[in-house]
Structure formats: C-alpha cells, structure tokens
Amino acid sequence: VFRMVRHQQERIIRYFFDVRRSFLRFLQRPDHKQELLNQWQRAYNAVHEDMRDDPETKAELHKRLEDLKEALWEICDASKRGAQEERTFVMEEKWLEDHTGILTNLFITLMQVEVDRYQDTVHLLNDYYNGVEGKSIAEAHVTPLRIPLVQLPRVEAPPGGGGAAAAASAAWARPLAALSRRRSWTPLSRTSSSRLPALPALAATRWTPV
Questions:
Q1: What gap in Å lies between CA 33 and CA 7, rounded to an integer?
Q2: CA Rg, the chain, in Å?
C-alpha cells in the first residue's frame, strides 16, 4: 500500500509538471501575424514616394492599414479562444479528481489495517484471559468495522483499444479490489469446548478483572 501511495503521489506531481509545460508550449505556439505585417510593409514600400502625397493613395494606404489591424485582431482573438478552450479542457478533464480518489482509498485502506489490528488484538486478549480463567471460548459474533471506500467513476475504454486513462484506471482497479477483499476481517472459527492453555507463571494465581 505504501508503494502505491508513493507511486500515486509521484504521478500527480508529474501530471502537474506536464500540464504546466504543455500549456505554456500551447500559449507560445507560432502564428502568422509577422507574415501579415511583412506583406503590408512590402506593399507600402512598393508605393512610389511621389504618390504617397496623393489623397486617393493615402486613403488606400489607410484602408490597407485598417485591414491589417482587423486581421491581427482576429488572430489574437482566435488565439485567446483557443487558450480558453484548452484551459477549460484541463480543468474539466477530471484526471486529478480520479487519482485523488485513488489516493484517498489507499489511505482508507491503511486506516482499515489499523482497525483490523485493533479488533484482532482485542479478541486475542479476550480469548487468552478467558482461557486463563478456565472459561470456555465461545464463537465470536462481532460484526467487523469496515470503513467504506470512495466510489470511483468507471472509465470506459474507447473503441480501438482504449487509451492511457483507461489503462491507468484498469491498472489501479485490480490492486484496490484486492486490498478491499483483503481488509475484510473474519474471526477465527472456534468451538465451545476449546480452551487456551494457561501460562506456567499464571497457573497458580487466578486473574481477577478490575
């Protein structure tokens, strides 16, 4: 269980690092704004200097500048929409919630191990002192305390073999199911005539409960 906890913590840390690196790379992706600016500059330089004072030429150059501004704004708006969609996709991916649930179940399993150890110790002490007092050890009818695990969503594999998320979910479902079966405590089968032998040091002295 501790190995699985360390593995999950490492996977979550690596996930945060990969998400930040991939999102930064997405924001720094190249575009063609510089290409549009270079085209506009070449077209402007192609106009002869004597014609730049002409009112109609000025109006045409101003119109080209407005078109360039609109084209640059469209590129910026498209880049902003893409960044917002990528951010929403990362936030709604539910990868972190799923693996946080797995990590929670692992810690619950560790808690269950301690609870089982406590219950086994109590029953062992009860049986021992009943044997020391010469009492018969009756069958224990105690319902074991079980801490419920967190219900994890089932990841359906897409057609064609699935992906990394489905493989990770299937890989962690098997060990968690095994731990869940292993943590169910069952008292040992005992008959009413069975008795524990008293220790030699305690054979001459009768134990009296306080």
A1: 44
A2: 36
Burial class of 183 by CB neighbour count within 10 A (0 to 12, 13 to 18, 19+) = buried
pLDDT tens digits for range 53-107 = 888 888 888 999 999 999 999 999 999 999 999 989 888 888 888 888 888 899 9
Nearby residues of 205 by Cβ (< 8 Å), 6 or more positions away:
none
In terms of pTM, does the model score above 0.70? no
Query: Following DSSP, what letter does each residue of 7-48 receive, concatenated?
Result: HHHHHHHHHHHHHHHHHHHHHT---SHHHHHHHHHHHHHHS-
Question: What confidence tens digit (pLDDT) does each residue in 100-141 have?
Answer: 888 889 999 999 999 999 988 888 888 888 888 877 766 656
Give CA angle at 31 (76, 73), nearest 5°: 20
Structure tokens of 109?
């399993």
- 3-state SS, residue 57: helix
Burial of 130 (0-12, 13-18, 19+ CB in 10 A): middle
| Distance (Å, whole) CA 196 – CA 194 | 7
